Amino acid sequence: MAFITLQGLNKYFDKQHVLKDINLEIEEGDFMTFLGPSGCGKTTTLRLLAGLETQEEGIIVIGDKIVADGKAHIFAPPAERQLNLVFQNYALWPHMTVFENVSFGLEGRKLNKKEIQRKVEISLEKLQILTYKDRYPSELSGGQQQRVAIARAIVTEPKILLLDEPLSNLDAKLRVEMRAELKRLHHELKTTMIYVTHDQIEAMTMSTKIAVFSEGRILQVDKPIQLYQYPNHLTVAQFIGNPANNFLDATCKEHGQTTVQIQSDLGKIEMSKQWVSELVEDVVLTVRPEDISISKTPLKNAVTGTIKTVLPAGSETIVHIRCGESLLLAKEIGVGNYLPDSTVYIKVKAEGLNIYDRATGARVNHVLEQSHQTDLHVYV
Ligand SMILES: Nc1ncnc2c1ncn2[C@@H]1O[C@H](COP(=O)(O)OP(=O)(O)OP(=O)(O)O)[C@@H](O)[C@H]1O
To answer: Looking at the keywords, is S-adenosyl-L-methionine present (predicted)?
Structure first.
């Protein structure tokens, strides 16, 4: 049984249906991220879990206890849910020192002064801010203040730590640093962490699992790499990846006994039939920019394209290529020297392709194990 279960959650604000049948299981020790665009219901789900909001329908189970049941109107208070919260705005007490802010979390617990001091110092040490313990929040940078807020949340040793966009007020450089810090902290504490963000890089780099939200629903729950390689829906394929996925209009038809043929601006691609889970004719083909290789000289089975723009970024080069009606985005490691308007020859990696039913947006190819990928034949 999962450590945390959200089952059939439905939530309304007045008449607005903001959560639509949310189902999710979170294992103990997971770093689960709720990812999605603004307004899709991530924070509301987190607040239901924390006990700061109530749902009309559905239950929430933490450990072996039902902490919220919409229909039965049972809602355990936040203090009985073994969790703590870190918000975007650090919510520190301005008149208290760092030490006092963190020890405040321990108030009400029967601990002597020495124990309190020890616990606070351990938390501050973990966040590498022990040297600032006598300072006031106004004497700290944004990043340091957020560290205090996290130290205050972990000092009570909660089993679950909820973090709502905790890094969004920090500048880009600090955000990158804090990502690594949070990941290290998760590894060290083994606390179950649930993290809300709309930043897909943050989600990809830190999480053990990601739940992708869209318009009050969860579209996919998966490990980051699985989510990246096999988005199960066009909306997820659009949302995950930077630079973005390439989308091509395509048709998929049976081609003999054992293959299907996918026709698009990438030419005719033949794949083993076992690759598709459902034979749909009107499809969208996706390919990641790094799965497109470019050659200046003609290659067998390559399609011809024209270079539109070259965007060198030092470690990588983004190349825009006109290919039939499609404008493709390719990513090359290092410096790519291509002249605008020159002709190039491109190939795609078979294992980087996915196809989606245009009508429903659902992925209609299987996730194949690495060992099966050699069974796929691709040629144009
Ligand atoms: N207290 C509230 N009263 C009325 N509507 C609300 C309230 N809180 C959230 N909503 C609405 O519920 C929907 C979901 O909001 P929520 O904050 O969960 O989204 P989110 O995905 O966390 O977005 P963001 O990343 O912008 O915080 C939005 O349409 C929002 O306007």
So the answer is: no
Q: Is 216 in the pocket of ligand 1 (CB under 6 A)?
A: no
**Protein residue whose Cα sits closest to atom 3 of ligand 1:** 13
Q: What pLDDT is attached to residue 369?
A: 57
Residue 28 CA to ligand 1 center (angstroms) comes to 27
Can you list the domains of the chain with their CATH numbers? Answer: 4-237 (3.40.50.300), 244-375 (2.40.50.140)
Distance 22 CA to ligand 1 centre (A): 15
Q: How far apart are CA 321 and CA 190, in angstroms?
A: 46
Question: Quick one: pLDDT at residue 24?
Answer: 98
Instruction: Give tens-digit pLDDT for 294-350.
Output: 999 998 888 999 999 999 989 999 999 999 999 999 999 998 889 999 999 998 888
- Are the beta carbons of 58 and 218 closer than 8 angstroms? no
Say yes or no: ipTM exceeds 0.85: yes
**Below-50 pLDDT ranges, the chain:** 371-380
pLDDT for residue 55: 97
**Pair of tokens at residue 304:** 């011809």
What single letter denotes the amino acid at residue 236? V
What is the value of pTM for the model shown? 0.90
Annotate 57-82 with b (16+ C-beta within 10 A) or e (fewer). bbbbbbeeeebbbbeeeebeebeebb
d(CA 48, ligand 1 centre) in Å: 12
**183 is written with which tokens?**
């990941």
8 Å CB contact between 223 and 184: no
Residue 51's alpha-carbon distances to 26, 56, 67, 137, 232, in angstroms, are: 17, 13, 8, 28, 31
